[in-house]
Specification:
Layout: E1 11-20, E2 23-33, E3 37-42, H1 49-56, E4 64-69, E5 72-73, H2 79-84, E6 87-90, H3 102-106, E7 113-114, E8 121-122, H4 124-137, H5 154-167, E9 172-176, H6 184-199, E10 203-208, H7 211-217, E11 220-225, E12 228-234, H8 240-279
Parallel strand pairs: 3-10, 3-11, 6-9, 9-10
Antiparallel strand pairs: 1-2, 1-4, 4-5, 7-8, 11-12
Helix pairs in contact: 4-5, 5-6
Bound molecules: adenosine-5'-diphosphate and magnesium ion.
The site of magnesium ion has 2 residues, from helix 1.
């Protein structure tokens, strides 16, 4: 396929770290996101997936390392900066208003208007037309634009959020665990939209803890474990079985290291207890 060394990535993370006080949420993470590819970020709870997205979308500043958009180093002052750079996130809760119509949700916060001054009003006809066209590009025929978003299926709501991000100029589309709350059929529908976004040339970042959802649609796989990069693979370099095994192995290692930590700290705790007891003037029991 393409020679990734010559292509400037849409988005690049270089040796990024993030600390919350003494908690190391991310340590020395590097990854590249190319247009027309799906980059899957895999990891268990607490791996640092959400923290990574928040850095990419301007919610948190990174502490170390570098963030590059189309080869240029950037520092986002907030989500607005990230959006202006073409980075859009579809969050788990989808940020849609269930009782509002599909077209209102599509344009929420960026409503098209007609006229000026006191005569300014919503351009409802335009909004409905664009929404239907954009949903049509995702293979969804919206018959009634006034239908409340809450009456759509989970997969279709994801589609509204994705179509909206694309229409408003996203080059990098980040999907935060879009399939985790869905059943098999609805997950399949969302995975179809992930592929469609890739085919339209977007760089898609697909966050999931399910290798079975990641493998069929992913071009690259980035594995996080407790804030660290456990591995980074092109599809040709790995298999579903390997990814599954690495995710499971990660859990095992985590359990093991917790056990070791406990064993390591017990004598220390005893020592501390002894010192405290001596300080208090008593004798260790
Ligand atoms: N705002 C925060 N303050 C303190 N610690 C945080 C904060 N956000 C995340 N963390 C910690 O960073 C680590 C990674 O969390 P997160 O990015 O949410 O992981 P994931 O999304 O993979 O489950 C966890 O140990 C979590 O407790
Ligand atoms: Mg998370």
């Amino acid at each position: 396929m393409n020679d990734s060394k010559k292509v400037i990535p849409l988005l690049e993370v270089r040796n990024v770290s993030k600390y919350f006080g003494s908690v190391i949420a991310l340590r020395d993470i590097s990854m590249q996101v190319n247009g027309g590819e799906v980059t899957c970020v895999l990891g268990d709870n607490g791996a640092g997936k959400s923290t990574l997205i928040k850095i990419l979308s301007g919610v948190h500043p990174h502490d170390d390392g570098e963030l590059l958009v189309e080869g240029h180093s950037v520092h986002f002052g907030g989500p607005r900066d990230a959006r202006a750079a073409g980075i859009s996130v579809v969050f788990q809760d989808l940020a849609t208003v269930p009782l509002m119509s599909i077209w209102r949700n599509f344009f929420l916060g960026s409503e098209p208007t007609l006229g000026i001054g006191p005569a300014r009003r919503l351009d409802i006809g335009f909004a409905k037309k664009v929404m239907r066209e954009e949903m049509g590009k995702m293979g969804i025929d919206v018959r009634d634009p006034n239908q409340p978003v809450g009456t759509l299926s989970g997969g279709e709501r994801q589609a509204v959020a994705i179509a909206r991000a694309v229409y408003f100029g996203a080059k990098v589309l980040i999907l935060d665990e879009p399939t985790s709350a869905l059943g098999v059929r609805q997950s399949g529908i969302v995975l179809k939209y992930v592929v469609q976004a890739r085919e339209r040339g977007l760089g898609v970042i697909f966050i999931t803890h399910n290798p079975h959802h990641a493998f069929p649609v992913g071009d690259r796989f980035v594995l996080l474990n407790r804030g660290r990069l456990m591995g980074s693979f092109a599809k040709s370099e790995t298999t579903l079985a390997e990814l599954t095994q690495m995710m499971a192995g990660g859990e095992e290692l985590e359990r093991l290291s917790k056990e070791l930590e406990k064993m390591a700290t017990e004598p220390e705790l005893e020592q501390v207890a002894r010192e405290l007891a001596q300080e208090a003037g008593g004798k260790p029991g």
